[in-house]
Amino acid sequence: MSIGIGIEIGSTKTVIASTNERGIIVNDELGNREIPTVVERTFPIRRFGKSVNSDNVNDLKVRKRFFLNNLTSPESQENVLMFLNYLDRVVNRAKVSFKSGALAIPEYFGEEEKLILKSIVEVSDLKITNFITHLTSIAACAALRTGNISPQYMIVDCGYSKTSVGTFSFEDGKVVPLKRWTIRIGSSCFDSAVSDIIIRKYNLPDNEITREKLYKEVKTIKKGLNVLSNVTIKLVDENYNTQTIEVLQDEYLKMIEPYLEELRNFFLKVKEESEFDGYTEVVGNNSYNVHIQQILKGLSYNTTLNSSESAALGACLAVGVNRMGGKYHVHEILGYNIFLKIQGENSKPKLVFDANSIIAPEPTKVKYNRKESFNIEVYQNDKVIGCIEVSKSVTDSPERVNLSVRINPFMTFEVVKVECESECSYVYKSYGISEEDKDALRDLEKRLRDAELEKELKGEMINYIESFMESFVDKLKKSFSQILSSEDFEIAVKIQDEFFDNELKVDTLDEAKACKQNLFKKLEFLSKKVSDSLKGDIENFIKETENKINYKHKTYSVLSLKTVLNDLKAYCKNFELDIESAVKYNSEKYEEYKRQIASLFFKAELEQEAEEAKIQEEAKRKEEAKRKDEEKAKESKEEDEMEKDSLENDKNCNTQEGEPNKS
């Protein structure tokens, strides 16, 4: 199991990385390392990523991009949920199991965006356990994959929707963000400039379809305008009419100059405020833009990281080392200040979390002295983002109210608890999606996913039926030509021809199942004949085996033989083939029973011979013992008789010695 995964959902592409092997990319179902961040809400089958490639106008109408840029929109929330669940299927299809998932998010996300995204993540199937900013992810990749980066370094991310810069330190295995700057100008501004020129110049309808058609061409146009005075393309409109489009370099430069000026000022500001002149890594596809390169010209920088994959790789490495809790750790900063202020009072807001302070897991304690219930406004810089409504018993004098707050793993403000001597409670009201709206998102995703699965399963069923009908006759001939007659095969071929002569029309999965059932019922006569014949063979074999099991001695193999035979009887009792199982029939299981029985018969014969030899040996031993006993008894008898004779002789001698001499 992988410790974790890291995911970067960019404006135009998404990358998933796993902590396995110090960070590897998880490919999509087509084998691509990058997944276009796009949803096509076609029905009943939605399309995602690389599968979105149609120029059909109806498909263009439901094609959705850049949904992370407008999270307050209910439609964007739906699209994000759909895309997250699609990514979950990508991860599951790649058989990547993991404990934790980090989602890399833009630095400009505030409390509102993060809370909405957190709500969507909670509804989704994808296991996301924390957020991490793009810059910190990239910084983690730079430090942890090599381990020998400078103690102080800068990351510049020239992305699609923004340009971000951050300074970091890497000492004692700790990646620590120091400060970061972000401007909402990126490649998208240059793309929009090209699209705006074309739409205005050629009086095209300014709608999603036109911009989607231009989306594919803009990159080519921008690349050409880097070196050419003009670029010409062919554009197919909504009515499939081809139109020649020309974009001049001068008009393009005029359109993008305000963005370039803002970027110049942005980098000057970063240089002045950071006072940094050390190791710098530049990533992001917009860094290949010649105009951006001109702005970066005065900056000594490196491009050793993969522009597309470094954020996802860094996110997965960060979640991995942080979860293990060893030497290495990736810290994060909030990027904006969090203040607390008593509602309705003209008091100075209290700073509780500094923009550039390391986010700590431990809660921060804030103390108030209050007689009664009160509300605390929560500010992100100067914007109200929530309200803590504290309810407490009224007391005669002010009592201490202890408020515990923290920044949670999703980088959002959270109230941990509110305590005081008297009874009290609290409610924190902020952004995010209501439970009712969450349920609506779940219901929508379920309806759409059920429709997709219905369509997919129906298609699989139709493919299976057609494949089966195409091959079943040949397979039956190959396996059962000795069982089925030529007349049987003639009927089967007729049914086969009738099937392919008529188009298979089914609208639902249930209709496909019914079609299969009716079709296979016509073929039951084949499977019954095959099944009866094979079962008869098994029954005959069982009878023959039973007749052969007539052994005098109940040895281990004889008992095992009876056990295997009983198993075979159970197999025979339940043996019944339908047309599908007849076509797929493999006699290996039956043959294995026969092999086992043959082997046990052989062993049983040897065991019987051994038992007989043992009996004969025992009889011989007993006979020899009997013979020895008889000889021993005979010898004992002879010894007894000899002893008796000796005693008799001794007695006679003694008698003679005791008689008087009569002379």
What are the SSEs and their pairings?
Blueprint: E1 2-9, E2 13-18, E3 24-25, E4 35-36, E5 38-40, E6 47-48, H1 57-61, E7 63-65, H2 74-93, E8 98-105, H3 111-123, E9 130-133, H4 134-144, E10 152-158, E11 163-171, E12 174-183, H5 187-201, H6 208-225, E13 230-236, E14 242-248, H7 249-274, E15 279-283, H8 290-295, H9 310-324, E16 329-330, E17 338-342, E18 350-353, E19 364-370, E20 374-380, E21 383-392, E22 399-407, E23 413-420, E24 424-430, H10 435-480, H11 486-501, H12 509-522, H13 524-548, H14 556-573, H15 579-583, H16 588-658
Parallel strand pairs: 1-8, 8-9, 10-15, 12-16
Antiparallel strand pairs: 1-2, 2-3, 2-4, 5-6, 5-7, 10-11, 11-12, 13-14, 17-18, 17-20, 19-22, 20-21, 21-24, 22-23
